[in-house]
Amino acid sequence: MHDYVRRILDSAVYEVATETPLERMGMLSERLGRDVFLKREDLLPVFSFKLRGAYNKIAKLSASERQRGVICASAGNHAQGVAYSARRIGVRAIIVMPTTTPSIKVKAVKRLGGEVIIFGDTFDDARLHALDLCKKDNLVFVHPYDDPDVIAGQGTIGVELLRQHSSQLAAIYVPIGGGGLAAGIASYVKFLRPEIRVIGVEPEDAASMKAAIAAGQPVPLDEVGIFADGVAVRQAGDETFRLCSTLLDEVVTVTTDEICAAIKDIFDHTRAISEPAGAVSLAGLRKHVGQLDIPGAAIAISSGANMNFDRLRHVAERAEIGERSEALLGVTIPEKPGSYRSFIRLLGDRAITEFNYRIAPGANAQIFVGVALKAGQAEKQEIIALLRNHALTVVDMTDNELAKLHVRYMVGGRVEGLMDEMLYRFEFPERPGALLRFLEGLHSDWNISLFHYRNHGSDFGRVLAGIQVPRNERPAFEQFLKELGYAHWDETGNPAYGMFLGMN
């Protein structure tokens, strides 16, 4: 610890970085009943804390080492830190990146002057290739985490935290990939303030440090999830394991949904969009802080904001579940007129976030429904009990990965022998009773044969509905739509309907 404290205080980080803000998260603090602070490492020049360790390592190289050039393997943020630092110091930088690296990070490295080589499906594949090139071309390898100078550079965050929050502090939650950030912060914080708990946080599907601590040594994971690609490391480092196993108070793990909910919290507070790895520590804080038995504030590290725009839809879909503010249910109801109205009435004024249905032969209908929750799991169990008490079969799919990723989008298909079906697209006003008003206005002999609805957080909900209306009743149906007053479009002639949903 003494050696690392000296290295941290002697760091060259502030030649390129400034002290990042520590911000109180007001809404989350009120919700959790404890002051919560966010360390804004996403505000550094490469939008990640990785600049600290990379620059400190390269700045410490001798003149002869700088002439040789540097190489690293990285899923993105370390790569940007190395490329930025090398350009600043005037050193050639080769970056090996796995094929799974988000394109935003690859483009950023190239803009910073790094020579990018795409190789392998995982970080470990890229690392082995980088080590081969390092030996072949006599380059200097800049490890993303398992290097004393890199660890010391990341440890400067610990210095800032203790200076920025001198009052009572209960815990610091730190994301772990290979462990460099956690090792650096813990080395400094535990030296000066050993009573502060330093808690590592990893994704459940990439918990390499937790596995190492359980085994007593670094061990490779059989599989590594890549949603939080910035911390998707198969095996913890030797040096980082030595430090983390001694200095960390605990390592907690979080799910993809919990990470997405944390991204939403960061956005709500900062209007900045964190990458999944950048929100891991806040996800851990949200999950674990209630277990702390000591008073004081809790800090999470917002470690990066290199998010691919095309991932936002997935994050938004999963955030509500991660916050436990939505229940996803598979419900069996009678396939007969009036069943939908009865079902919606049972839910009362609860907001329906999703509703998927396609008619099928038989006495029962299967619907996939999302319901907004105000009281978390207790309310979900109350809803399930209510539906079952009315003789409906209910399957809780809130934590069903297959349902969340795929099945919710696949409810439907063709139905043989379906007559008089019309397909309409609607915009429903997002207010209680909008769906019930639609259902109650339908004539009893107009059968709903398809229904898809998903709340996207706007003023209007987009709905696709198939309705069986006999030809002689079409004028009455048109009058119903006019009186309903909802924006609508007839999609019966749409080729997408004809190819995938309509009759053969």
- CATH C-level name of the largest domain: Alpha Beta
* Fraction of residues in β-strands: 15-25%
Rg for CA atoms: 27 Å
Category from helices, strands and their pairing: alpha/beta
Helical residue percent band: 40-55%
Round the mean pLDDT to the nearest integer and report it: 90
Describe the structure using short key phrases:
504 residues; alpha/beta; Rossmann fold; Biosynthetic Threonine Deaminase, domain 3; 8-stranded antiparallel beta sheet; 20 helices; 21% strand
Fold blueprint:
Layout (H helix, E strand, L loop, with lengths): L1 H8 L12 E3 L1 H7 L3 E5 L9 H10 L3 H6 L1 E4 L3 H13 L3 E5 L5 H9 L3 E4 L4 H15 L2 E2 L6 H17 L4 E7 L4 H13 L4 E7 L4 H8 L22 H10 L2 E5 L1 H15 L9 H9 L8 E6 L9 H11 L3 E9 L4 H9 L4 E7 L5 E9 L3 H14 L3 E4 L4 H5 L15 E9 L4 H8 L5 E8 L5 E9 L5 H11 L2 E4 L4 H6 L4
Helix pairs in contact: 1-8, 1-9, 3-5, 3-8, 5-6, 8-9, 9-11, 12-13, 12-14, 15-18
Task: Sum this structure up briefly.
With 504 residues, this protein is of the alpha/beta class. The chain is 40% helix and 21% strand.
Notes on the structure:
The chain is an alpha/beta fold and 504 residues long. The protein folds into 3 domains: 2-44 and 152-319, Rossmann fold; 50-141, Rossmann fold, CATH 3.40.50; 324-500, Biosynthetic Threonine Deaminase, domain 3 (3-Layer(aba) Sandwich). Helices cover 40% and strands 21% of the residues. The strands form 3 sheets. Strands 14-11-13-12-16-17-15-18 form an 8-stranded antiparallel β-sheet. A 6-stranded mixed β-sheet has the order 1-2-10-7-8-9, sandwiched between helices. Strand 12 and strand 13 (364-372) form a beta hairpin. The longest helix has 17 residues, at 148-164. It is elongated and about 90 Å long.
